[in-house]
Every structure is written in C-alpha cells, then in structure tokens.
Amino acid sequence: STNRTFTMIKPDAVENGHIGGILDKITSAGFKIVAMKYTQLSKRDAQEFYAIHKERPFFGELVEFMTRGPIVAAILEKDNAVEDFRALIGATNPADAAEGTIRKMYATSIGENAVHGSDSDENAAIEGAFHFSGREIF
Ligand code: CMP
Q1: Residue 19: CB within 6 Å of ligand 1?
Q2: Distance in angstroms (rounded) separating the CA atoms of residues 33 and 13
Q3: Known active-site residue 116
Q4: Is 86 annotated as a binding residue?
Q5: How far apart are CA 127 and CA 105, in angstroms?
Q6: What CA–CA distance (Å, rounded) separates 57 from 124?
Q7: Confidence of residue 1 (pLDDT cuts 50, 70, 90)
Q8: What percent of the chain has pLDDT over 70?
C-alpha cells in the first residue's frame, strides 16, 4: 500500500554538488516528494534525531558531520516506500552498496554516506514530524 518514508541528503552530498543527481534518482524511481526543505541541523537537533545511536562510538562524529553544513530533508510517498527507498539508497557502507544505488554513486564512506532513509513506517512518521508541520506536507 502507499506509504511514506523520510530522507535527508546529508552534508557530504550537498557539499559535493549531488542534490540534483540524488533528487533525480528519487523521482525517477517513482517516489513523490510530499514535503521538502533546505535546512541545517543544530547540535541539539542532531543529538535528538540520532538519540538511538548515543551510546555508539561514532555518535560524536555523526553529530559533527550532520551539523557541518546544510541538508535537504524530505518526505517521500510510494507503494512500499520504506523498503523500496532502502533498496534505492543501498547499504550503509558504500563499499557494500549495490551498483546503481545512491550510496554506491554518491557516498564516500560509512560515516559520510550521502543519504538517510527511515528504517520502519513508525520511524518514518517520527522523523517526518521532527522536520515538518502538517501544513508543510502536501
Ligand atoms: P544512517 O544509517 O542513515 O544513520 C546512522 C548513521 O550513523 C549512518 O547512516 C552513518 O552515517 C553513521 N554510521 C554508522 N556506522 C558508522 C560507523 N561505523 N562510523 C561512523 N559513522 C557511522
């Protein structure tokens, strides 16, 4: 059934000029953009968004990275959105990502991996609501 996922084009991909390429991959794969903004996370935003990872050794590095420059945040709609979007972006580590996936094409490392994709319908709703109010979703 039609549902939604949440994505961010991360600071590395923005810095490297890949916003257009990534949005083209997303829309060409049949995802409809129902909300989108260009923004930058504060330290507090990133700590809250990634709270589930706060005990991980890479947490500090993750917060530094995700706050170092602007991102594109978006809510995407498609049949089977969460699963299909994770297939489109590829493995967390671009070295393991399949040919043609967004991370294979645009990511540089496991930390600086170009894009975020929600891992469940529940988290997609939480993450979307973190960035967008009801009147920003179309
Ligand atoms: P993502 O899966 O979107 O959300 C959690 C992020 O933590 C992940 O992308 C990476 O950016 C980052 N991450 C995961 N594992 C590592 C790691 N071993 N070293 C650095 N960053 C990591």
Answers
A1: no
A2: 19
A3: yes
A4: yes
A5: 25
A6: 25
A7: confident
A8: 100
Q: What's the pTM value of the predicted model, to 2 decimals?
A: 0.96
56 is in an annotated binding site: no
At residue 2, the pLDDT reads 82
- For helices 81-89 and 121-131, angle between their N-to-C axes, nearest 10 degrees: 80
Ligand 1: nearest atom to the Cα of 119:
2
| Mutation probe of ligand 1 site: the residue of 52, 66, 103, 113 with most atoms within 8 A of C-beta | 113
Q: What is the pLDDT of residues 62-82, one digit of tens each?
A: 999 999 999 999 999 999 999
**Domains in the chain and their CATH numbers?**
2-136 (3.30.70.141)
Using CA atoms, how far apart are residues 114 and 42, in angstroms rounded to an integer? 18
The closest residue, in CA terms, to atom 2 on ligand 1 is 92
